Amino acid sequence: MRLLSPALFFPAGNLQRKISVFAFPARNIGVHATKPGMEKNRGEGSRQEGVESRIQSNPRVVKAQQLVNSDSSGGWEKSWEEGATPWDLGQPTPVMVHLHQTGALPKGRALVPGCGSGYDVVAMACPERYVVGLDISETAIRTAVELSSSLPNADYFTFLKADFFTWQPTNLFDLIFDYTFFCAIEPDMRSAWAQRISDLLKPDGELITLMFPIGDHVGGPPYKVSVSDYEEVLHPFGFKAISIVNNELAIKPRKGKEMLGRWKKSLSLL
After folding, report:
1. Per the record, which residues fall in region Disordered (predicted)?
2. For 96-129, how does the pLDDT look when each residue is reduced to its tens digit (9 = 90+)?
């Protein structure tokens, strides 16, 4: 299995849908941890169980899993062809919109692997940031182009059908954003994912990971993730977390199941 598309498990909408943005820490050094009380723990557990239940019982998720698991090379394309794309939010990821609007994203060249319909690509693209959306599905790329080609910022992004694991771009990137790509590849491919991130990112570039779904469900895609899963594969390539925080801007069904990680290579290893 190779590439897929980002955003997960809820119906698509319009690319230009208005997003409400709430206060969010754009950058915090170190890992934030809390020590909740028993009532909060029970509430958090209920939210996590609810998300995992939706993941495992959503008919569109089940259909996509069947297609992907039965055809590792063409399953993602079949999912797009048959409309079994429950990962497609139908809007940009709210926290990325916020980071863009507050000037908290690196400028230069950005990459979104598994871009799907391209909402996040379009949301980040601007004169100071050229964004490349990559997906292995021809139908996904065609959809992204159709949705975005007439938008005012169309000169600042492009979409390419390519396999993230074999694609060789001419130039490296200042920013790579991963959301529901890491969780969709088979866990034994995660080290290869980290190798490609290291290869494609400039030495002083930044990796942003929106880690989802954090939990204990069995099977996939999406496969369960944890902060330690990212650390395990990124640390050997010199990446260190400069910030890991709960995603307070997660859409309601994903509250408590997402963490935003920002990673850079250690200067001592450059």
Report:
1. 33-56
2. 999 999 999 999 999 999 999 999 999 999 999 9
Angle 123-127-132 from CA coordinates, rounded to 5°: 55
Phi-psi sector, 131: left (phi>0), alpha (psi -120 to 50), beta: beta
Rounded to an integer, what distance in angstroms lies between the CA atom of residue 261 and that of residue 179?
A: 11
Residue 15 structure tokens: 């690319």
Q: What's the rounded Cα separation, in Å, for the pair 192 and 198? A: 10
Instruction: For residue 156, give the DSSP letter.
Output: G
Residue 223 in tokens: 């496969």
Q: If you ran DSSP here, which 8-state letter would residue 223 be given?
A: P
Taking each helix axis as running N to C, give the angle between helix 227-234 and helix 190-200, from 0 to 180 degrees, rounded to the nearest 10: 60
The model's confidence at residue 59, banded by pLDDT at 50, 70 and 90, is confident
CA atoms within 13 A on the CB side of 86: 19
Do strands 239-246 and 108-113 pair parallel, antiparallel, or not at all (unpaired)? unpaired
Q: Are the CB atoms for 211 and 227 separated by under 8 Å?
A: yes
pLDDT tens-digit readout, 198-256:
999 999 999 999 999 998 888 888 899 999 999 999 999 999 999 999 999 999 888 99
Cα–Cα distance measured from residue 197 to residue 201, given in angstroms and rounded to the nearest whole number: 6
Name the β-bridge partners of 240: 264
User: Coil, helix or strand for 109?
Assistant: strand
What gap in Å lies between CA 180 and CA 114, rounded to an integer? 8
Residue 209 DSSP code = E
**pTM as predicted:** 0.78
> Taking Cα atoms as reference points, which of 110, 212, 119, 160 lies closest to residue 3?
160
